[in-house]
Amino acid sequence: MTTNSSDTPQARLQALGLSLPVPASPVANYVPWTRAGNLVFVSGQLPIGPGGAIEPAHKGKLGASVSVEVGQAAARAAALNVLAQAAAASGDLARLRAIRLGGFINSAPDFASLPQVLNGASDLVAAVLGEAGRHARFAVGVAQLPLDAAVEVEGVFEILD
Amino acid sequence: MTTNSSDTPQARLQALGLSLPVPASPVANYVPWTRAGNLVFVSGQLPIGPGGAIEPAHKGKLGASVSVEVGQAAARAAALNVLAQAAAASGDLARLRAIRLGGFINSAPDFASLPQVLNGASDLVAAVLGEAGRHARFAVGVAQLPLDAAVEVEGVFEILD
Amino acid sequence: MTTNSSDTPQARLQALGLSLPVPASPVANYVPWTRAGNLVFVSGQLPIGPGGAIEPAHKGKLGASVSVEVGQAAARAAALNVLAQAAAASGDLARLRAIRLGGFINSAPDFASLPQVLNGASDLVAAVLGEAGRHARFAVGVAQLPLDAAVEVEGVFEILD
Fold it and tell me: Using the beta-carbon criterion (under 8 Å), do A138 and B104 form an inter-chain contact?
Protein backbone atom coordinates (compact mmCIF):
# COMPACT_ATOMS: atom_id res chain seq x y z
CA MET A 1 0.00 0.00 0.00
CA THR A 2 1.40 3.33 -0.97
CA THR A 3 0.86 6.39 1.11
CA ASN A 4 0.92 9.94 -0.05
CA SER A 5 0.21 13.18 1.63
CA SER A 6 -3.48 13.10 0.72
CA ASP A 7 -3.91 9.59 2.11
CA THR A 8 -3.79 10.45 5.78
CA PRO A 9 -6.47 10.69 8.44
CA GLN A 10 -5.97 14.45 8.53
CA ALA A 11 -6.49 14.72 4.78
CA ARG A 12 -9.60 12.53 4.95
CA LEU A 13 -10.98 14.69 7.73
CA GLN A 14 -10.46 17.81 5.63
CA ALA A 15 -12.02 16.12 2.60
CA LEU A 16 -15.12 15.58 4.76
CA GLY A 17 -15.16 19.29 5.48
CA LEU A 18 -14.40 18.62 9.12
CA SER A 19 -11.76 19.60 11.60
CA LEU A 20 -11.13 18.22 15.04
CA PRO A 21 -12.62 20.36 17.78
CA VAL A 22 -10.36 21.60 20.52
CA PRO A 23 -10.62 18.71 22.98
CA ALA A 24 -12.75 19.62 25.99
CA SER A 25 -10.79 20.28 29.14
CA PRO A 26 -10.85 18.08 32.21
CA VAL A 27 -14.01 18.51 34.24
CA ALA A 28 -14.00 17.92 37.97
CA ASN A 29 -12.18 14.79 39.07
CA TYR A 30 -12.19 12.91 35.83
CA VAL A 31 -10.37 13.50 32.59
CA PRO A 32 -11.26 13.10 28.91
CA TRP A 33 -8.83 10.25 28.31
CA THR A 34 -6.28 8.06 30.02
CA ARG A 35 -3.53 5.90 28.64
CA ALA A 36 -2.36 2.52 29.88
CA GLY A 37 0.46 1.07 27.83
CA ASN A 38 -0.60 1.55 24.22
CA LEU A 39 -4.30 1.65 25.02
CA VAL A 40 -6.22 4.90 25.29
CA PHE A 41 -9.58 5.01 27.07
CA VAL A 42 -11.71 7.98 25.99
CA SER A 43 -14.44 9.24 28.32
CA GLY A 44 -18.01 9.21 27.08
CA GLN A 45 -18.43 12.08 24.62
CA LEU A 46 -21.63 13.93 23.87
CA PRO A 47 -22.63 15.56 20.56
CA ILE A 48 -21.27 18.89 21.68
CA GLY A 49 -20.85 21.09 18.62
CA PRO A 50 -18.25 23.67 17.60
CA GLY A 51 -20.00 26.29 19.73
CA GLY A 52 -19.41 24.29 22.88
CA ALA A 53 -23.01 23.23 23.41
CA ILE A 54 -25.31 20.46 22.24
CA GLU A 55 -27.65 21.62 19.49
CA PRO A 56 -31.24 21.37 20.70
CA ALA A 57 -31.95 18.95 17.83
CA HIS A 58 -29.36 16.55 19.24
CA LYS A 59 -31.19 16.29 22.55
CA GLY A 60 -34.03 13.94 23.34
CA LYS A 61 -34.97 10.35 22.73
CA LEU A 62 -34.80 8.23 19.63
CA GLY A 63 -38.21 6.75 19.04
CA ALA A 64 -39.78 9.89 20.43
CA SER A 65 -38.63 13.39 19.43
CA VAL A 66 -35.43 12.41 17.57
CA SER A 67 -35.45 10.75 14.14
CA VAL A 68 -32.95 8.10 13.04
CA GLU A 69 -31.31 10.56 10.66
CA VAL A 70 -30.87 13.20 13.32
CA GLY A 71 -29.65 10.55 15.73
CA GLN A 72 -27.00 9.57 13.19
CA ALA A 73 -25.85 13.16 13.00
CA ALA A 74 -25.66 13.28 16.80
CA ALA A 75 -23.63 10.04 16.82
CA ARG A 76 -21.29 11.52 14.24
CA ALA A 77 -20.85 14.68 16.31
CA ALA A 78 -20.09 12.62 19.42
CA ALA A 79 -17.60 10.48 17.48
CA LEU A 80 -15.79 13.57 16.23
CA ASN A 81 -15.23 14.51 19.85
CA VAL A 82 -14.01 10.97 20.59
CA LEU A 83 -11.50 11.29 17.75
CA ALA A 84 -10.37 14.68 19.07
CA GLN A 85 -9.67 13.22 22.50
CA ALA A 86 -7.91 10.18 21.09
CA ALA A 87 -5.78 12.43 18.87
CA ALA A 88 -4.89 14.52 21.91
CA ALA A 89 -3.72 11.32 23.59
CA SER A 90 -1.67 10.06 20.66
CA GLY A 91 -0.46 13.42 19.39
CA ASP A 92 -1.48 12.50 15.86
CA LEU A 93 -4.55 10.97 14.23
CA ALA A 94 -2.23 8.91 12.03
CA ARG A 95 -0.93 6.98 15.04
CA LEU A 96 -4.41 5.84 16.14
CA ARG A 97 -6.14 2.54 15.66
CA ALA A 98 -9.77 2.28 16.78
CA ILE A 99 -10.36 -0.75 18.99
CA ARG A 100 -13.84 -0.50 20.47
CA LEU A 101 -16.62 2.07 20.46
CA GLY A 102 -19.36 1.96 23.09
CA GLY A 103 -22.58 3.55 21.92
CA PHE A 104 -25.30 4.60 24.34
CA ILE A 105 -28.45 5.89 22.72
CA ASN A 106 -31.18 7.79 24.56
CA SER A 107 -34.12 5.62 23.60
CA ALA A 108 -37.81 5.19 24.08
CA PRO A 109 -38.56 1.68 25.35
CA ASP A 110 -39.60 0.46 21.90
CA PHE A 111 -36.84 1.96 19.73
CA ALA A 112 -34.74 -0.90 18.36
CA SER A 113 -32.96 0.71 15.36
CA LEU A 114 -29.92 1.35 17.52
CA PRO A 115 -27.31 0.01 15.06
CA GLN A 116 -28.48 2.41 12.37
CA VAL A 117 -28.05 5.35 14.72
CA LEU A 118 -24.58 4.30 15.87
CA ASN A 119 -23.51 3.90 12.24
CA GLY A 120 -23.23 7.69 12.28
CA ALA A 121 -20.27 7.24 14.64
CA SER A 122 -18.80 4.12 13.03
CA ASP A 123 -18.92 5.56 9.53
CA LEU A 124 -17.07 8.69 10.62
CA VAL A 125 -14.33 6.78 12.42
CA ALA A 126 -13.86 4.48 9.44
CA ALA A 127 -13.88 7.39 6.99
CA VAL A 128 -11.22 9.26 8.95
CA LEU A 129 -8.95 6.44 10.08
CA GLY A 130 -9.38 4.12 7.08
CA GLU A 131 -8.29 0.55 7.75
CA ALA A 132 -7.20 1.60 11.23
CA GLY A 133 -10.77 2.71 11.88
CA ARG A 134 -12.36 -0.75 11.81
CA HIS A 135 -13.54 -1.26 15.37
CA ALA A 136 -15.57 -3.54 17.59
CA ARG A 137 -18.59 -1.89 19.16
CA PHE A 138 -21.76 -2.24 21.14
CA ALA A 139 -24.98 -0.28 20.71
CA VAL A 140 -27.56 -0.13 23.48
CA GLY A 141 -30.59 1.99 24.22
CA VAL A 142 -30.49 3.68 27.60
CA ALA A 143 -33.07 5.46 29.74
CA GLN A 144 -31.31 8.84 29.74
CA LEU A 145 -27.96 10.55 29.06
CA PRO A 146 -26.18 13.60 30.45
CA LEU A 147 -27.80 16.89 29.37
CA ASP A 148 -30.54 14.85 27.66
CA ALA A 149 -28.11 14.17 24.79
CA ALA A 150 -29.44 11.80 22.13
CA VAL A 151 -26.18 9.82 21.98
CA GLU A 152 -23.04 9.23 24.06
CA VAL A 153 -19.99 7.47 22.60
CA GLU A 154 -16.95 6.23 24.50
CA GLY A 155 -13.98 4.46 22.97
CA VAL A 156 -10.82 2.44 23.32
CA PHE A 157 -7.96 3.12 20.91
CA GLU A 158 -4.49 1.74 20.34
CA ILE A 159 -1.54 4.03 19.82
CA LEU A 160 0.64 2.74 17.03
CA ASP A 161 4.38 3.01 17.52
CA MET B 1 -3.29 -30.41 36.86
CA THR B 2 -3.31 -33.04 34.13
CA THR B 3 -4.81 -32.44 30.77
CA ASN B 4 -6.11 -35.04 28.41
CA SER B 5 -7.86 -34.84 25.12
CA SER B 6 -11.30 -34.75 26.71
CA ASP B 7 -10.33 -31.92 29.01
CA THR B 8 -10.35 -29.13 26.48
CA PRO B 9 -12.77 -26.31 25.78
CA GLN B 10 -13.71 -27.97 22.51
CA ALA B 11 -14.51 -31.23 24.29
CA ARG B 12 -16.55 -29.42 26.93
CA LEU B 13 -18.48 -27.64 24.22
CA GLN B 14 -19.29 -30.94 22.55
CA ALA B 15 -20.26 -32.49 25.88
CA LEU B 16 -22.81 -29.68 26.20
CA GLY B 17 -24.20 -30.64 22.81
CA LEU B 18 -23.05 -27.35 21.36
CA SER B 19 -20.84 -26.23 18.55
CA LEU B 20 -19.58 -22.77 17.81
CA PRO B 21 -21.59 -20.97 15.17
CA VAL B 22 -19.82 -19.63 12.13
CA PRO B 23 -18.86 -16.18 13.35
CA ALA B 24 -21.00 -13.48 11.80
CA SER B 25 -19.28 -11.44 9.11
CA PRO B 26 -18.35 -7.82 9.45
CA VAL B 27 -21.31 -5.51 9.09
CA ALA B 28 -20.89 -2.03 7.71
CA ASN B 29 -17.97 -0.11 9.17
CA TYR B 30 -17.44 -2.11 12.29
CA VAL B 31 -16.15 -5.61 12.84
CA PRO B 32 -17.02 -8.44 15.24
CA TRP B 33 -13.73 -8.26 17.11
CA THR B 34 -10.47 -6.40 17.29
CA ARG B 35 -7.18 -7.30 18.91
CA ALA B 36 -4.75 -5.00 20.71
CA GLY B 37 -1.72 -6.80 22.02
CA ASN B 38 -3.06 -9.91 23.75
CA LEU B 39 -6.48 -8.40 24.40
CA VAL B 40 -9.48 -9.15 22.19
CA PHE B 41 -12.53 -6.89 22.25
CA VAL B 42 -15.68 -8.65 20.99
CA SER B 43 -18.55 -6.55 19.67
CA GLY B 44 -21.92 -6.80 21.37
CA GLN B 45 -23.49 -10.10 20.37
CA LEU B 46 -27.20 -10.84 20.19
CA PRO B 47 -28.91 -14.20 20.79
CA ILE B 48 -28.86 -14.99 17.10
CA GLY B 49 -29.46 -18.71 16.68
CA PRO B 50 -28.09 -21.32 14.28
CA GLY B 51 -30.59 -20.22 11.63
CA GLY B 52 -29.10 -16.73 11.54
CA ALA B 53 -32.00 -14.99 13.25
CA ILE B 54 -33.16 -14.27 16.78
CA GLU B 55 -35.90 -16.64 17.90
CA PRO B 56 -39.07 -14.66 18.61
CA ALA B 57 -38.97 -15.93 22.20
CA HIS B 58 -35.57 -14.25 22.67
CA LYS B 59 -36.99 -10.85 21.81
CA GLY B 60 -38.71 -8.48 24.22
CA LYS B 61 -38.26 -7.24 27.73
CA LEU B 62 -37.47 -9.05 30.93
CA GLY B 63 -40.10 -8.13 33.47
CA ALA B 64 -42.67 -7.95 30.70
CA SER B 65 -42.95 -10.60 27.98
CA VAL B 66 -39.72 -12.53 28.71
CA SER B 67 -39.30 -14.78 31.77
CA VAL B 68 -36.05 -15.14 33.70
CA GLU B 69 -35.58 -18.67 32.36
CA VAL B 70 -36.04 -17.61 28.75
CA GLY B 71 -33.78 -14.63 29.38
CA GLN B 72 -31.08 -17.00 30.63
CA ALA B 73 -31.39 -19.01 27.42
CA ALA B 74 -31.06 -15.80 25.42
CA ALA B 75 -27.97 -14.82 27.43
CA ARG B 76 -26.49 -18.24 26.77
CA ALA B 77 -27.16 -17.91 23.04
CA ALA B 78 -25.52 -14.48 22.97
CA ALA B 79 -22.52 -15.81 24.92
CA LEU B 80 -22.08 -18.65 22.45
CA ASN B 81 -21.70 -16.03 19.74
CA VAL B 82 -19.22 -14.12 21.90
CA LEU B 83 -17.16 -17.31 22.25
CA ALA B 84 -17.32 -17.90 18.50
CA GLN B 85 -15.95 -14.44 17.81
CA ALA B 86 -13.24 -14.74 20.44
CA ALA B 87 -12.24 -18.13 19.05
CA ALA B 88 -12.03 -16.61 15.57
CA ALA B 89 -9.68 -14.01 17.02
CA SER B 90 -7.45 -16.49 18.85
CA GLY B 91 -7.65 -19.32 16.36
CA ASP B 92 -8.46 -21.77 19.15
CA LEU B 93 -10.80 -21.81 22.15
CA ALA B 94 -7.99 -23.35 24.20
CA ARG B 95 -5.90 -20.19 23.89
CA LEU B 96 -8.63 -17.94 25.34
CA ARG B 97 -9.02 -16.52 28.80
CA ALA B 98 -12.22 -14.61 29.59
CA ILE B 99 -11.51 -11.22 31.17
CA ARG B 100 -14.74 -9.27 31.29
CA LEU B 101 -18.30 -9.76 30.02
CA GLY B 102 -20.64 -6.80 29.65
CA GLY B 103 -24.27 -7.80 29.92
CA PHE B 104 -27.05 -5.51 28.71
CA ILE B 105 -30.55 -6.77 29.42
CA ASN B 106 -33.68 -5.38 27.78
CA SER B 107 -35.65 -4.60 30.92
CA ALA B 108 -38.88 -3.17 32.16
CA PRO B 109 -38.18 -0.35 34.63
CA ASP B 110 -38.89 -2.60 37.63
CA PHE B 111 -37.00 -5.75 36.63
CA ALA B 112 -34.05 -6.17 39.00
CA SER B 113 -33.15 -9.89 38.62
CA LEU B 114 -30.48 -8.98 36.12
CA PRO B 115 -27.69 -11.14 37.61
CA GLN B 116 -29.82 -14.26 37.33
CA VAL B 117 -30.40 -13.59 33.64
CA LEU B 118 -26.75 -12.92 32.89
CA ASN B 119 -25.78 -16.14 34.67
CA GLY B 120 -26.95 -17.84 31.46
CA ALA B 121 -23.92 -16.25 29.78
CA SER B 122 -21.46 -16.62 32.66
CA ASP B 123 -22.30 -20.27 33.22
CA LEU B 124 -21.72 -21.11 29.57
CA VAL B 125 -18.37 -19.32 29.42
CA ALA B 126 -17.23 -21.03 32.62
CA ALA B 127 -18.48 -24.43 31.44
CA VAL B 128 -16.61 -24.14 28.14
CA LEU B 129 -13.39 -22.44 29.21
CA GLY B 130 -13.07 -23.94 32.70
CA GLU B 131 -10.69 -22.04 34.97
CA ALA B 132 -9.89 -19.73 32.07
CA GLY B 133 -13.58 -18.84 31.93
CA ARG B 134 -13.75 -17.02 35.28
CA HIS B 135 -14.45 -13.44 34.30
CA ALA B 136 -15.35 -10.05 35.70
CA ARG B 137 -18.68 -8.73 34.50
CA PHE B 138 -21.38 -6.12 34.79
CA ALA B 139 -25.12 -6.62 34.38
CA VAL B 140 -27.42 -3.69 33.68
CA GLY B 141 -31.00 -3.29 32.50
CA VAL B 142 -31.34 -1.10 29.43
CA ALA B 143 -34.28 0.57 27.71
CA GLN B 144 -33.92 -1.30 24.43
CA LEU B 145 -31.51 -3.40 22.35
CA PRO B 146 -30.94 -3.92 18.62
CA LEU B 147 -33.72 -5.93 16.98
CA ASP B 148 -35.60 -5.91 20.31
CA ALA B 149 -33.24 -8.66 21.52
CA ALA B 150 -33.71 -9.64 25.17
CA VAL B 151 -29.96 -9.65 25.86
CA GLU B 152 -26.73 -8.30 24.38
CA VAL B 153 -23.33 -9.48 25.60
CA GLU B 154 -19.95 -7.98 24.75
CA GLY B 155 -16.62 -9.22 26.04
CA VAL B 156 -12.91 -8.76 26.56
CA PHE B 157 -10.65 -11.79 26.32
CA GLU B 158 -6.95 -12.47 26.67
CA ILE B 159 -5.11 -14.59 24.16
CA LEU B 160 -2.75 -16.97 25.91
CA ASP B 161 0.62 -17.51 24.31
CA MET C 1 7.27 15.40 44.27
CA THR C 2 8.01 14.29 47.79
CA THR C 3 6.18 11.49 49.46
CA ASN C 4 5.83 10.93 53.14
CA SER C 5 3.96 8.41 55.20
CA SER C 6 0.83 10.56 55.40
CA ASP C 7 0.75 11.08 51.65
CA THR C 8 -0.44 7.65 50.66
CA PRO C 9 -3.79 6.37 49.44
CA GLN C 10 -4.22 4.47 52.68
CA ALA C 11 -3.60 7.62 54.72
CA ARG C 12 -6.04 9.60 52.57
CA LEU C 13 -8.65 6.91 53.03
CA GLN C 14 -8.23 7.09 56.81
CA ALA C 15 -8.38 10.88 56.71
CA LEU C 16 -11.78 10.52 55.04
CA GLY C 17 -12.87 8.30 57.91
CA LEU C 18 -13.15 5.33 55.58
CA SER C 19 -11.68 1.89 55.37
CA LEU C 20 -11.84 -0.54 52.52
CA PRO C 21 -14.52 -3.16 52.95
CA VAL C 22 -13.55 -6.80 52.81
CA PRO C 23 -13.88 -7.47 49.09
CA ALA C 24 -16.96 -9.52 48.30
CA SER C 25 -16.26 -13.13 47.45
CA PRO C 26 -16.74 -14.64 44.03
CA VAL C 27 -20.38 -15.29 43.23
CA ALA C 28 -21.40 -18.08 40.91
CA ASN C 29 -19.33 -18.32 37.75
CA TYR C 30 -17.90 -14.86 37.69
CA VAL C 31 -15.37 -13.15 39.89
CA PRO C 32 -14.99 -9.63 41.29
CA TRP C 33 -11.92 -8.82 39.24
CA THR C 34 -9.57 -10.21 36.64
CA ARG C 35 -6.12 -9.17 35.58
CA ALA C 36 -4.64 -9.17 32.08
CA GLY C 37 -1.08 -7.91 31.98
CA ASN C 38 -1.07 -4.76 34.10
CA LEU C 39 -4.76 -4.07 33.58
CA VAL C 40 -7.37 -4.98 36.19
CA PHE C 41 -11.03 -5.22 35.25
CA VAL C 42 -13.35 -4.82 38.24
CA SER C 43 -16.88 -6.25 38.05
CA GLY C 44 -19.80 -3.89 38.44
CA GLN C 45 -20.08 -2.97 42.11
CA LEU C 46 -23.24 -1.95 43.93
CA PRO C 47 -23.52 0.42 46.90
CA ILE C 48 -23.37 -2.45 49.34
CA GLY C 49 -22.56 -1.06 52.76
CA PRO C 50 -20.45 -2.32 55.67
CA GLY C 51 -23.31 -4.56 56.81
CA GLY C 52 -23.25 -6.49 53.55
CA ALA C 53 -26.49 -5.11 52.18
CA ILE C 54 -27.63 -2.09 50.21
CA GLU C 55 -29.24 0.54 52.44
CA PRO C 56 -32.86 1.02 51.43
CA ALA C 57 -32.11 4.68 50.69
CA HIS C 58 -29.57 3.59 48.05
CA LYS C 59 -32.21 1.68 46.11
CA GLY C 60 -34.55 3.13 43.53
CA LYS C 61 -34.41 5.55 40.65
CA LEU C 62 -32.83 8.94 40.33
CA GLY C 63 -35.48 11.35 39.14
CA ALA C 64 -38.08 9.44 41.13
CA SER C 65 -37.48 8.30 44.72
CA VAL C 66 -33.74 9.04 44.95
CA SER C 67 -32.34 12.59 45.16
CA VAL C 68 -29.10 13.70 43.53
CA GLU C 69 -27.42 13.95 46.93
CA VAL C 70 -28.42 10.46 47.96
CA GLY C 71 -27.42 9.18 44.53
CA GLN C 72 -23.97 10.70 45.04
CA ALA C 73 -23.67 8.85 48.34
CA ALA C 74 -24.66 5.63 46.60
CA ALA C 75 -22.06 6.26 43.88
CA ARG C 76 -19.44 6.85 46.54
CA ALA C 77 -20.40 3.60 48.31
CA ALA C 78 -20.16 1.66 45.04
CA ALA C 79 -16.79 3.27 44.25
CA LEU C 80 -15.44 2.26 47.66
CA ASN C 81 -16.23 -1.34 46.73
CA VAL C 82 -14.53 -0.85 43.35
CA LEU C 83 -11.40 0.38 45.16
CA ALA C 84 -11.54 -2.59 47.53
CA GLN C 85 -11.60 -5.02 44.61
CA ALA C 86 -8.84 -3.22 42.75
CA ALA C 87 -6.73 -3.17 45.91
CA ALA C 88 -7.29 -6.91 46.28
CA ALA C 89 -6.00 -7.32 42.74
CA SER C 90 -2.92 -5.15 43.19
CA GLY C 91 -2.17 -6.03 46.79
CA ASP C 92 -1.84 -2.37 47.68
CA LEU C 93 -3.82 0.80 46.98
CA ALA C 94 -0.56 2.61 46.37
CA ARG C 95 0.17 0.50 43.30
CA LEU C 96 -3.12 1.40 41.57
CA ARG C 97 -3.83 3.89 38.83
CA ALA C 98 -7.46 4.45 37.86
CA ILE C 99 -8.00 4.19 34.11
CA ARG C 100 -11.73 4.19 33.43
CA LEU C 101 -14.89 4.11 35.53
CA GLY C 102 -18.18 3.03 34.01
CA GLY C 103 -21.16 4.50 35.79
CA PHE C 104 -24.65 3.10 35.37
CA ILE C 105 -27.38 5.05 37.12
CA ASN C 106 -30.88 3.74 37.73
CA SER C 107 -32.83 6.57 36.15
CA ALA C 108 -36.28 7.75 35.37
CA PRO C 109 -36.56 8.54 31.64
CA ASP C 110 -36.20 12.27 32.21
CA PHE C 111 -33.33 12.36 34.72
CA ALA C 112 -30.32 13.93 33.00
CA SER C 113 -28.13 15.02 35.95
CA LEU C 114 -26.12 11.84 35.63
CA PRO C 115 -22.65 13.45 35.80
CA GLN C 116 -23.47 15.06 39.16
CA VAL C 117 -24.45 11.68 40.58
CA LEU C 118 -21.35 9.90 39.29
CA ASN C 119 -19.16 12.63 40.76
CA GLY C 120 -19.77 10.84 44.06
CA ALA C 121 -17.66 7.99 42.67
CA SER C 122 -15.09 10.11 40.82
CA ASP C 123 -14.47 12.38 43.77
CA LEU C 124 -13.80 9.44 46.08
CA VAL C 125 -11.39 7.77 43.67
CA ALA C 126 -9.51 11.05 43.16
CA ALA C 127 -9.46 11.77 46.90
CA VAL C 128 -8.01 8.36 47.71
CA LEU C 129 -5.62 7.81 44.80
CA GLY C 130 -4.58 11.43 44.23
CA GLU C 131 -2.96 12.04 40.84
CA ALA C 132 -3.26 8.32 40.12
CA GLY C 133 -6.99 8.65 40.57
CA ARG C 134 -7.64 10.80 37.51
CA HIS C 135 -9.72 8.56 35.28
CA ALA C 136 -11.74 8.50 32.10
CA ARG C 137 -15.39 7.63 32.62
CA PHE C 138 -18.84 7.36 31.15
CA ALA C 139 -22.15 8.07 32.91
CA VAL C 140 -25.41 6.71 31.54
CA GLY C 141 -28.92 6.33 32.88
CA VAL C 142 -30.23 2.76 32.70
CA ALA C 143 -33.68 1.21 33.06
CA GLN C 144 -32.81 -0.89 36.10
CA LEU C 145 -29.91 -2.34 38.11
CA PRO C 146 -29.37 -5.49 40.19
CA LEU C 147 -31.29 -5.41 43.49
CA ASP C 148 -32.85 -2.10 42.40
CA ALA C 149 -29.57 -0.38 43.33
CA ALA C 150 -29.45 3.33 42.50
CA VAL C 151 -25.94 3.08 41.03
CA GLU C 152 -23.53 0.46 39.66
CA VAL C 153 -19.88 1.27 38.99
CA GLU C 154 -17.36 -0.88 37.15
CA GLY C 155 -13.74 0.02 36.52
CA VAL C 156 -10.47 -0.57 34.76
CA PHE C 157 -7.23 0.03 36.68
CA GLU C 158 -3.55 -0.22 35.94
CA ILE C 159 -1.17 -1.89 38.35
CA LEU C 160 2.00 0.13 38.71
CA ASP C 161 5.24 -1.80 38.90
Answer: yes
